[in-house]
Amino acid sequence: MPRIAAQPFPFDFDKSRTGLVVIDMQRDFIEPGGFGASLGNDVSRLQAIVPTVKTLIEGFRRAGLAVVHTRECHRPDLSDLPPAKRDRGNPALRIGDPGPMGRILVAGEPGAEIVSELAPLPGEAVIDKPGKGAFYRTGFGDVLKDKGLHYLVFAGVTTEVCVQTTMREANDRGYDCLLTTDATESYFPEFRDAAIDMIRAQGAIVGWTAPTRDILEALND
Ligand code: C5J
Questions:
Q1: Cα separation values, 98 from 86, 102, 109, 121, Å
Q2: Which residues make Cβ contacts (< 8 Å) with residue 82, sequence separation at least 6?
Q3: Could you say which of 20, 23, 129, 148 has the lowest number of CB atoms within 10 Å?
Q4: Which atom of ligand 1 lies closest to the CA of 72?
């Protein structure tokens, strides 16, 4: 069985049942003028990981393994947007409002698209999700089952929100989950670091962690 040099201990995996899940690498979180920026965040932190996420995706594609992308977005009529989510806080723009990249976090708008460098290839699954977790009100679980996946490598943004929520959901459903430490980012570095620590604490209570280099090395073994 191939093995990734992971924390808190090595991650043994069956390559034929392993896939990459790339969470929410969307313009609305990563580029100026989107949802992340409207909440007052510095998006350059997230922009900085795009090349590493690209390297990871390309490594999985080269190895012939599944890549699944998610996008946090809502229906144009906002029927899947709870008022508690829309009305929270005091952002410059709320979900559904028109912004420089179209309506904020609405499916089909330019801001909801994945950044061009990481565009999904034809045939790769793209899951639109109204929540933080990818299993909530989506076909994500069915996609994983159809592809026969059991070992999930996670990348994307933001570490402590949608990435961690989805990892926890997957862990509860019996998947073995590993987070790439350098292909995930938060607007708050201390939250990214804390999420990474929480995931691998207590004997990998949510999952394992490893840098991209070590993951790709194990895929090529
Ligand atoms: C947030 C996400 N942070 N993709 N979404 O609202 O983490």
A1: 14, 5, 10, 28
A2: none
A3: 148
A4: 4
Residues taking part in catalysis: 24, 129, 162
Burial (CB count <10 Å: 0-12, 13-18, 19+), residue 84: exposed
Helix, strand, or coil (residue 15)? helix
Number of residues in the chain? 221
Distance CA 92, CA 32 (A): 13
Answer whether 0.90 is exceeded by the pTM.
Answer: yes
User: At how many degrees (to 10) do helices 189-204 and 164-172 cross?
Assistant: 20
On whether the CB atoms of residues 208 and 179 are closer than 8 A, the answer is yes
Atom of ligand 1 nearest to the CA of 163: 7
pLDDT digits (tens, 9 = 90+) for 165-194: 999 999 999 999 999 999 999 999 999 999
Q: What are phi and psi of 104, to 5 degrees?
A: -60, 125
Q: Which residue has the tokens 């069956």?
A: 14
Q: Under the phi-then-psi rule, with left for phi > 0, alpha for psi from -120 to 50, and beta for the rest, what region is 65?
A: beta
Which tokens go with 218? 């194990």
